[in-house]
Amino acid sequence: MPYGCQATTIVSLILNGSVVVAHKTILLKNIILGLFMSFYVDNLADVKTGKIGQNSRIWQYTVILPGAEIGRCCNICSHCFIENNVIIGDRVTVKAGVYMWDGLRLGNDVFVGPNVTFTNDKYPKSRNAEYACLETWVEDGAVIGGGAVILPGIRIGIGAIVGAGAVVTRDVLPGVTVVGNPARVIKIG
User: Model-level pTM?
Assistant: First the structure.
């Protein structure tokens, strides 16, 4: 982090078998003491997880639930929501307005454009606690353009590109570019 940036950190301590989470705003200097995590959380974010990798940044109005895992050197932009059963790899960029629901897995070096919509229930209905949560996988190096919709249970392959506004209804093979509604292949490799 740059010298002198203001950051909010979350420090977890184990006292008598219980985890205590303390929020503290600090002024970072050249050295981050071993007592503090070296990631940035904006004062206006609501972060409940302690599983955030070094040098990641969480911006304002983002909500992250306790079970979420975020890798190193990630950038989670403003107005995002990350549910409990979400795993985000290293060096991932998630632009503003993206909601990540249970079952989402983002690999390393993934880019998710603004307002991308992920879903996890094929047959959603109100108050259905027994829905089948389908896992969605976005593999290493994949790119998803702004406003794309990714239906549940989809796998987007290594290095694949999903064009802006595409509606992905089936798996996207590695290295392929898809666009449109429904998404169709326009470039292979």
Answer: 0.81
Instruction: Please list, residue by residue across 76-92, b when 16 or more beta carbons sit within 10 angstroms of its beta carbon and e when fewer do.
Output: bbebbbbbebbbbbbbb
Distances (CA, A) of 186 to 1, 21, 172: 40, 49, 12
Beta strand 184-188 pairing with 176-179: antiparallel
**What would the two tokens of residue 71 be?**
């890798």
How far, in Å, CA of 150 to CA of 187, rounded? 19
**Per-residue pLDDT tens listing for the chain (189 residues):** 343 344 444 444 444 344 444 444 433 433 333 445 599 999 999 999 999 999 999 999 999 999 999 999 999 999 999 999 999 999 999 999 999 999 999 999 999 999 999 999 999 999 988 889 999 999 999 999 999 999 999 999 999 999 999 999 999 999 999 999 999 999 887
| Domain annotation for the chain: domains and CATH numbers | 44-188 (2.160.10.10)
With tokens 């898809």, the residue in question is 178
CB-count burial class (<10 Å; 0-12, 13-18, 19+) for 165: middle
Q: Which residues contact 34 (CB under 8 A, 6 or more apart)?
A: none
Residue 140 to residue 18: CA distance in whole angstroms: 36
